[in-house]
Amino acid sequence: MRRTAREIAELVGGRLIGEPEREIMGVASLATATEREIAFVESEGHRSQAERSRAGCLIVPEGFRLSGRTLIEVAHPRRAFADVILLFHPRPRPTPGVHPTAILGEGVILGEEVSIGPYAVLDRQVRIGARTVIGAGVYIGARVEIGEDTLIHPNVTIYPDVRIGTRVIIHSGSVIGSDGFGYFLVEGRYRKFPQVGSVIIEDDVEIGAGVCIDRGTLGATRIGRGVKIDNLVHIAHNVTIEEDTVIAAQTGIAGSAHIERGVQIGGQVGIADHVRIGRGAIIGAQAGVPSGKHIRAGEFVWGTPARPMREFKEQYAHLSRLPHLRHMVAALSEQLEALRQLVLEERAKDE
Amino acid sequence: MRRTAREIAELVGGRLIGEPEREIMGVASLATATEREIAFVESEGHRSQAERSRAGCLIVPEGFRLSGRTLIEVAHPRRAFADVILLFHPRPRPTPGVHPTAILGEGVILGEEVSIGPYAVLDRQVRIGARTVIGAGVYIGARVEIGEDTLIHPNVTIYPDVRIGTRVIIHSGSVIGSDGFGYFLVEGRYRKFPQVGSVIIEDDVEIGAGVCIDRGTLGATRIGRGVKIDNLVHIAHNVTIEEDTVIAAQTGIAGSAHIERGVQIGGQVGIADHVRIGRGAIIGAQAGVPSGKHIRAGEFVWGTPARPMREFKEQYAHLSRLPHLRHMVAALSEQLEALRQLVLEERAKDE
Amino acid sequence: MRRTAREIAELVGGRLIGEPEREIMGVASLATATEREIAFVESEGHRSQAERSRAGCLIVPEGFRLSGRTLIEVAHPRRAFADVILLFHPRPRPTPGVHPTAILGEGVILGEEVSIGPYAVLDRQVRIGARTVIGAGVYIGARVEIGEDTLIHPNVTIYPDVRIGTRVIIHSGSVIGSDGFGYFLVEGRYRKFPQVGSVIIEDDVEIGAGVCIDRGTLGATRIGRGVKIDNLVHIAHNVTIEEDTVIAAQTGIAGSAHIERGVQIGGQVGIADHVRIGRGAIIGAQAGVPSGKHIRAGEFVWGTPARPMREFKEQYAHLSRLPHLRHMVAALSEQLEALRQLVLEERAKDE
């Protein structure tokens, strides 16, 4: 595929500066782009990389100039570049249809142009919305409902009674709706507390690979609209995650925790049971939020137990200076003793 | 389904207080229950939630009273409620039989009323006990033995020679018997040390989703009777986990660690190789137990490196007061200097 | 199978001391070996275990003697023992051939003696090298290339366009080539940034169970020759891991991090985005390396934020002695006050 700079500028609604007929054959990063490739400059902070780049064309923010280069000026370079990537790397939808090896239980209802891959198994009364794609080897339990334009990658497992919205993406190896971790002791042995709730995944959620989301004990575990979850995340029974929250890889969220909207959770964070995290809070990577704790809206916390970032940094700085503090105390002790000797000598002289 | 309060009281062997004919149509939590639903009160500590609840019937501990409400008094409310949940949400076993697409190798032996799902693959000489259920897409390697009444959810992978007991539950995506992480260096490059041991999973174990349990290098990795393992846990080669231990999500246990019985391990805990954890110990979430360390029976530890909880809390409290300590030291230094000046002035006066 | 000590000594090129005709029927560890089994002694440090061992034959390092025992003396006991393990536990390669239930898309090219398991799905234009084994239920996306003598265990998922080398091992449940975690905000909502790069896995890599390796956003995520990755590790988009690096279980490596060769990374380590780890560095278990940080070649770091081990240990020791430091400061304060009183009394006497 080849496109001129002018065609690309038209696609992204940008203003062309330089050679309109320059031919572009692919997309790349600033560091690796060749003269036949287009790259993007996110902000003025990337000027020196842009100067060194050999890219044949650059998508740049408004007001950004680089003499002798072909530029496409836009309000939001990353967004425009996302469109250019899809121009050169269209993601072809699989041909609609049910692969002959797919197994559909009684009462399964499929929307228009659905694609069901080889060896997928849909148990009874599953409903799949229009244009949704189910990959090879996916298992979908009884009565699961999935909306439109959703993409379930190969080898995902969905337990019965889960509800999944529209434009959701679930990556391979993920498990949705497994039993929560609930037991009670009878004479020193654990017995299983039945886990009969469900999981609700709302529209525009993306779930990475190897993620496990447990069903509620009674009610539902809820993943709100637009939530983005990275690989290998664990979400326990009855957790609520509100809209537009993002969760980095390997984070774990224990039972009944409630994450409000627009929260940013770093990688390998641990959130204990019954925690509440306020709107727009930021939880730094590897932080641990203890059971029942409430993190206020907008707060930025780090460490285990998690505390406000400023406090964490202050404590850490003090920790680093502890050897110095010990020396100061030892010196003070000596000085005090020296002064005492002086006083005692004076006193002896007086007598 | 509908049941009267009287019928439910009979089922759980409880004492009915209030309206015997009140009709109940489902189970719910105290917070969400309607007048047609039953909820439970674990202890006196949940009184205010019980008072606010709209539940039509409450299962309560002995001696708990709430005027004007229909109550069922029992010795162990959570246990009784578990039975009530199963009354309203019976878990139907799949119809026994081998799905025509399942592949059984030579010499596979199946017990009575076994259920093997679509696209399951059982390699040669696998033995499956009576009433055990193997989900869709499960792979079971050669010579694996599985006991009775066990439930293997879809898309689980079991390597050859693993032994699994009776009434075991394994959730989707889990992998049992993969090679341990063992190498040796030859001229700067790692060579694989063969991993030819096995995994033994005893009766009444439950394993969550996405769990990985490696086979022993020579002997076996052993998961004792009644052990409960949450999602995304890693258990390395030659680990021993004794009876009735519980392990929360995303914990990792390195090679040859030995966890005694009745231990409670929090989420995201790291236990290094050759660690020994004594009977009934508690390891707090995200703690890290260093290589070769021995945690004593009954001890409660936290932090990395893990230390007794009391010590951890004391150190943490001191860490929080470090800024104050620095101020104290600075003030002492000034006061000492002031006193020295005073002494020197006195001395000068004397002379 | 039975072999004499002499036959085993010949196999490993060792020097036999003791009974050449002693019969050995299996391998075991020092602790569990019987008289019919062989075990190995890694070094002089294991002498007491060797003395207690009932093993019928011991592979020992040069110069190691144990009277009355049959020994095989070699330069590298672990390496020799690895060969003996494979003698008693040969790993039979599956019979070459494509299982009739495997599905091969258009243009798939298979090398000689390839084995493709039941229900494996190879999308169009996949190429598989000679003697490579693809397990049951594996999904391989379009245009994936896999080298020779590679082993893909059951239920692995490989996304399109991934390239995998020769003698690679990938364990069950792993996902290679899923989308990286990349979004941009438009009016408060996250939009997906297309992830169109690939993953390159070089020769002699081993990848554990449940590992997730994301494809690059534009370029490739690269796993260098001889890298060994334990279970449940997360590797994000555009990460580079150079040759002969080892990564223990549950570690996460964020976007564009660059790990140089010969690095050792412990379990549950978190490496943030754009970190660089120098050649031969060691990252202790559970350490957290903050965004953009550069760890120098050969350095040994621990803690979050990661710092040189010596510094970590010093700070930790100081932390442990904090209660003592507080007492010292309190005592100093009292002593200072006592001295001040003394001075003031003296002064009053003088007046």
What can you tell me about this protein's structure?
3 copies of one chain form a homotrimer. Chain A is an alpha/beta fold. Chain A has 3 domains: 3-88, Udp-n-acetylmuramoylalanyl-d-glutamate--2,6- Diaminopimelate Ligase, Chain: A, domain 1; 97-310, 3 Solenoid (UDP N-Acetylglucosamine Acyltransferase, domain 1); 321-350. In chain A, 19% of the residues lie in helices and 29% in strands. The first copy, chain A, contains 5 helices and 41 strands. In chain A, strands 8-11-14-17-20-25-28-31-34-37-40-41 form a 12-stranded mixed sheet. The first copy, chain A, is flat and about 110 Å long. The termini of chain A are far apart. The relative contact order of chain A is 0.05. Chains in contact: A-B, A-C, B-C. At the A-C interface, helix 3, helix 4 and helix 5 of A face strand 22, strand 23, helix 4 and helix 5 of C.
Give the radius of gyration of chain A: 29 Å
Number of DSSP strand runs of chain A: 41
Second rung of CATH, namely the architecture of the largest domain in chain A:
3 Solenoid
Query: Could you say which structural class the secondary elements and strand pairing of chain A correspond to?
Result: alpha/beta
The CATH topology of the largest domain in chain A? UDP N-Acetylglucosamine Acyltransferase, domain 1
What count of domains describes the coordinates of chain A? 3
Largest sheet, spatial ordering of strands of chain A = 8-11-14-17-20-25-28-31-34-37-40-41
Can you summarize the main beta sheet of chain A? 12 strands, mixed
